[in-house]
Amino acid sequence: MIFDEQNTAFLSNKLCISITEFEAYLSERFGSKSQCFNALVSFLIKGEAKQKLPYLDVMNQSFEWDLLRNRAFEYIRASFTINDDQEDYLYETICYFCWYYSGGLKELFKHRQADNEGP
Length: 119
Prior knowledge:
Order of helices and strands: HHHHHH
Shape: globular
Distance between the termini: 16 Å
Largest sheet: none
Number of domains: 1
Number of strands: 0
Structural class: mainly alpha
Strand content: under 5%
Helix content: over 70%
Oligomer: single chain
Radius of gyration: 14 Å
């Protein structure tokens, strides 16, 4: 099990992610290094982004996304050593949250590309 109870509930109920499939994918791809994703989700759920992003215009949203990404990676790197593959997937996960916080599931699915590897 990768995600704690609070993160599991958020991912499942808010983002409509199949936790079983997502955890299996993370475990297969990253093995024991997949715990950084639980830390990232905790950071994103408890952070200020969900209050800020919905009320910003496009320019300010882009600026706030960059700040959020930088803060998230600083937070993760303080506790985990991550490789390039993890960094790419962590970034993809951050994007999913930014889209969700900016406009809900509609915005999330509107921006998701077929070649994205997100959940």
